[in-house]
Write a structure and sequence with these properties.
Ribosomal Protein L15, Chain: K, domain 2; 2 domains; Molecule: Ribosomal Protein L15, Chain: K, domain 1; rod-shaped; 3-stranded parallel sheet; about 140 residues; alpha/beta; 4 helices
């Protein structure tokens, strides 16, 4: 039996039409090719959300990145707080102003070393309990 190629010898397109034998010819391209051109109607029907933006992006000025410190790190912050004049010692109790140091939150990780009174914009419930128990 003669091969398919031999069968079509002398026929210009080998039975495929003009562009059928080159690349992704008869299909109109591979993948998403032509979604803004010849496949636009099918895109509107089957994938209407394919193009365009989705969701939103918050502006940078609206974003806030609070600086947080764990209760266990208070002792290591003592030199920095003393240098800035934000730490006072009243007897055994250390009185610290973390808001002046640019710290927004006090979190409850670690152990409290010594007695502390802390001034901060926001403190977690566990951090408050640990500082009160130590004092």
């Amino acid at each position: 039996m003669v091969s398919r190629t031999r069968k079509f010898r002398g026929l210009r397109t080998h039975g495929r039409g003009i562009k059928g034998g080159r690349g992704a010819g008869k299909r109109g391209g591979t993948g998403n090719a032509g979604l803004h051109k010849h496949k636009f109607k099918s895109m509107l029907i089957y994938a209407p959300d394919h193009f365009g933006r989705k969701g939103f992006k918050r502006p940078a000025r609206a974003m806030s990145y609070p600086v947080a410190v764990n209760v266990g790190e208070l002792a290591s912050l003592m030199p920095l707080l003393k240098e800035k004049g934000l730490l006072k010692t009243e007897g055994e109790v250390h009185v610290a102003d973390l808001t002046g140091a640019g710290i927004d939150r006090l979190l409850g990780g670690g152990r409290v070393e010594g007695k502390w009174k802390v001034r901060v914009a926001h403190a977690s419930r566990i951090a408050q309990e640990k500082v009160e128990i130590a004092a």
